[in-house]
Fold this sequence. Notes:
Blueprint (H helix, E strand, L loop, with lengths): L2 H31 L2 E9 L7 H9 L6 E2 L8 H4 L14 E2 L7 E2 L8 H6 L2 H16 L13 E5 L13 H11 L5 E4 L5 H15 L5 E7 L5 H8 L24 E9 H7 L5 E10 L11 H15 L8 E3 L8 H11 L9 E4 L2 H4 L6 H15 L1 E2 L19 E3 L4 E2 L8 E7 L4 E9 L15 E7 L2 H11 L7 H10 L6 E7 L2 H8 L5 E2 L4 E6 L11 H6 L1 H9 L11 H5 L1 H21 L6 E4 L3 H8 L5 H17 L5 E5 L12 E8 L2 E6 L1 H13 L4 E3 L15 H9 L9 E2 L12 H9 L4 H10 L2 E7 L5 H6 L6 E4 L7 H14 L6 H5 L17 E2 L4 H4 L10 E5 L2 E6 L6 E7 L11 E2 L2 E2 L3 H15 L3 E7 L11 E7 L8 E9 L7 E9 L18 E3 L4 H7 L11 E7 L2 E7 L13 H6 L12 E11 L6 E8 L4 E7 L5 E12 L2 H5 L17 E3 ...
Parallel strand pairs: 5-6, 5-7, 10-11, 10-15, 11-13, 20-21, 20-27, 21-26, 27-28, 47-48
Antiparallel strand pairs: 1-8, 1-9, 2-3, 4-29, 7-8, 9-16, 12-14, 15-16, 17-18, 18-19, 22-24, 22-25, 23-24, 30-31, 31-32, 32-36, 33-34, 35-38, 35-42, 36-37, 37-38, 39-40, 40-41, 41-43, 42-45, 43-44, 44-45, 46-47, 49-50
Amino acid sequence: MSNEEKLLDYLKRATSDLRDTRKRLADAQRREQEPIAIISMGCRYPGGVGSPEDLWQLVLDGVDTVRPLPTDRFWDLDGIYDPTPGATGKIYSNEGSFLDDAAGFDAELFRISPREAAEMDPQQRLLLETAWETLERAGIDPLSLKGSRTGVFAGVMYHDYGAGTSDGSLVSGRVAYTLGLEGPAITVDTACSSSLVALHTAIRALRAGDCPLALAGGVTVMATPETFVEFSRQRGLSPTGRCRAFADGSDGVGWGEGSGMLLLARLSDAQRLGYPILAVVRGSAVNQDGASNGISAPNGPSQRRVIRQALASAGLGTSDVDVVEAHGTGTTLGDPIEAQALLATYGQDRSEPLWLGSIKSNMGHTQAAAGVAGIIKMVMAIRHGVLPKTLHVDSPSSHVDWTAGSVELLTESRAWPAVERPRRAGVSSFGISGTNAHVIIEQAPSVEAVERSVVARPVPWLISGKTPDALSEQVSRLSAVEGVEPLDVAYTLATGRAAMEQRAVVVGSSLDELVAGLSGVAGVTAGAGKTAFLFTGQGAQQLGMGRELYERFPVFAEAWDAAGGSAAAWGSDQDVLNQTGNAQPALFAFEVALYRLLESWGVRPDFVAGHSVGEIAAAHIAGVLSLEDARALVSARGRLMQALPAGGAMVALQAAEDEVVLRPGVNIAAVNGPQSVVISGLEEAVLEVKAEFEALGRKTSRLKVSHAFHSALMDPMLDEFRAVVDGLSFAEPTLAVVATSAGGGAWSSAEYWVGHVREAVRFADAVVELSTQGVTRFVEVGPDAVLTGMAANSVEDAAFVATQRRGRGQERELVAGVAQAWALGVSVDWEAFFAGRDARRADLPTYAFQHQRFWINSVWTQGSDLGSAGLAAAEHPLLGAVVAAPEGDGVVLTGWLSTQTQAWLADHDVLGTVLLPGTAFVELAIQAGDHVGCDVVEELTLEAPLVLPERGGVAIQVVVGAAGDDGARPVSVYSRLDDSELPWTRHALGVLAVGAQVPVVELAEWPPAGASRVDIDGAYDQLLRRGYAYGPVFQGLKAVWRRGEEMFAEVALPEGAGAERFGLHPALLDSAMHGELLGDGETHLPFAWSGVTLHASGASALRVRMAPAGNDQHSLTVADLTGQPVLTVASLASRPVTPAQLSSAEPLFQLAWQPATTGSLVDSDLVVEHVASAEGDVLGGVRSVASVVLERIRAALSEDTRIAFVTRGAVSVSGEDVDLTVAPVWGSRAGRPGGEPWSFCLGGHRLRRLVPGPGAR
């Protein structure tokens, strides 16, 4: 190659590279400046605002949302208010703009336990619901984004709720975690500018390709009045709680709260994917005041700079923006500075004035949610072409030189100025730390309306909710829709809403029909389990079957043609179709075509089965036969049957199979149910059987058939049919199948299909087998509802769906069947279902959240001040604080129990009364022991029930006394209602000890060898009948086994129950005993525990062994799922209780003394021995007494009995002399052979001492 050629080649490559570089630079620049589409908005603000439409109506109507401080947040409203400014620690304004239901949250929807919900920062809860609504308003199923790179950008500035759950990162992280979003999750805290800075960050992430969708916004909930206190100190708080933005009468800021969220995408992506575009973000900027005149003081030059940066980002000039939604807090310092910055920028070089307003005049300064509130207001204003007025402006501020530029206050609402370009608005937010943000939004690009013609056809409206109440409210909301296309509603409900457990469907062709259908709709629970398709047999054929489906659905038409759809099916003579040579191919074609249509919509079975000829269609669907071979099989079968001599009869009988006595010429043709048999054979013999059953009053019916199928009359065709079948190819099924032919064998065997003609159809057996395989849903694929009715008589606890019914509209029945299957839990690809229908997203009501109140009480809120009260934090869900006793080394642990703040406690309902479970007393005793170094609850006797009130709560104290010589301590548990005037009630008394032993736990082999599994279906229904109305947290029993008198169980807490915060969660330990309660009997409650040792904490699932321990007591061994020890209980005694006992304030149980003489039995294996003093010298006396005691101990050990010694004078009770010959007996309990302590017992319950009887010292 010459130099000239080399040079030319180089120049070509350089030119090409330059073009590529320029293109990449241009693409990068376009990405950097690409507008961002706002495709959805959601919000909650004061004044009952629950949607952008509510917010728009509020500002349009000029509503002022200021009201008194909330009374439901445990604020000391009387103590904190002082109208005199300057009072230390007080507030001089007791008004603001507050959310109506800041404590309300649908925890169940988000699978968050009540306990966790109560401890969650309400800002997390509020933003979760707002994000859910925002996605739904875009027509996006929130759960469909799981695993996507959707980003979450949340502004938040308060971290003052409770302890440990107000970390700012959790606000965005909670949304991402709950919805499974895997894009950036970033929480922004720049105080009052947080939500606009979050929006700016989201825009940059979208343009950089970090995420294709982004949720951006902010949230503010004031959990404490600290901000009121601080701004009262600074004299910056408005006495009336109102922001008088830019008014001469401005007197300070008024606080508000709320939540706002935007769903964003790059404009090109939004247009490509068909998302609704409400507006676009043209530009944004963020900067800082830097070293200004004060960290919290506004800075005019910085505000001017951020505005110019945003305009440059958008490629716009100042006159290209029509209105600014200002920060406008109403302070005498901030508003003039902001106004001057606007006059110096937007106020210059324009022919029309810049209009200025602030939503803070309506709802106060919502702080981290303020910027996004301004965005939502301006988007709605752009869409409606109206500029709402700003409230409380007596006259423009005299501290502003309004002549310095062309800016005017919106003191009245007005139409948007007419412009020859898109409408635009700027929105400002300035943080107290100096971070400023400005965003410019623009009217959405115009979209040419595309005409469409919607043909009225049946559509399903699918409604679902997490609970029956949610479903009911969702139905009610939907009933109010007006002026919408039913097809669009159906499409949006199916593809833009999450499918939850409780479901309902209505099917119709018109809006009136569908709305009317909602009034009587019944909900069902989408159950677990598998789905079987049942293919109908001969007799279901009807004229015209499939014609409507053929015309409406191309998939059906193609499959019908390929399967050899019979002309007879669409003829005019039913008798012709009934000829078996026509009926069988027609049924085959119909069922294959119907299945292919269902399959195209994502409706697929786990199992298939068929009745007679329907089994051939099922075999083809399962891959056993190719379509060509299946057609050959069914054609030959029908043709050869048709060729047989006419005659014979078939009769359906209401009878069990074993009731039918066969005779020559009669065969069982089908067993369709427990009381449904078909006989076939010679006409005379068959009719004789028919007459016999009619004489018994049974129902009988002669089938309209030309031949006696599945009888010996079929034998003449079998050889020729076998020759046809031998020429076909069979494969192993690709789906799970259950055969119905009595001849047995596999579908992949040619001989099976020969016997299939002759042998009985054992349909009922097949249905039962399917049920045992886990099938809970049966869908019939055929032209009529035949098999569903028969199958329903064979199994219980299953659902049955027909996809066609004789004499009804075929499309409507199919749509109804598919919708019903979905309601029962069958998966459907609704995008495929609506494909080609030109369905569009409709604006529908969002999810009907079912709010419960979750707000931690005042004690928790002030937990950080325990030290100043002389207390230490107990760090336990049931206990708040611990304090040492002033004398001795005892301690008192205190707590506050309420079903509102610890909602799981309400799940322990016994005989209609909510009680603190006995296991909770054990947990309290264990925790108390941890604080004083005791590792065994040696005994704990429950004396009185602790009834938890429906409202309010109870204070509790766990009192631990001083240690004895052996380290043991008394422990007692007290409570009283949340009223300091009421007396304390003692509920439990016991002893804490030291010296826990490492147990031998043999639960590694699981299930245990030799144990038999117990059916626990309906276990909690059984327990309910016995008085135990356990709620979800206490329904932990998962499996039970028995081996003789031993009970083994597996128990687990529901997800999110917070097991890690307990030694052993009381609900989990309570569930460990439920297996022993199954069956009929009285209602029992734990009475006395002994020898309780916790070996590992925080378990959420357990293996349990419960065994008799004598005297109606049980021992309890609890391990984790690997078999490692968690808890052991030497003995547990329970006693029956009645509703009257639970409703009274009297103790349930008490200790009673039983007189005992030497050698008497006070229990089945406990012998009492009185120890007598010895005469003579002390040493001799000691030897004599010790010899007697040791001899009795040896005898007790050999006889496997327990022994209790009663002494006189062995210990000093009131300072009297001690009998030295008897005193050593008390020392004998310190040890025994093997190193185990002696066990002194009374009535079968371990006690630290045997208390002396009358006259003893």
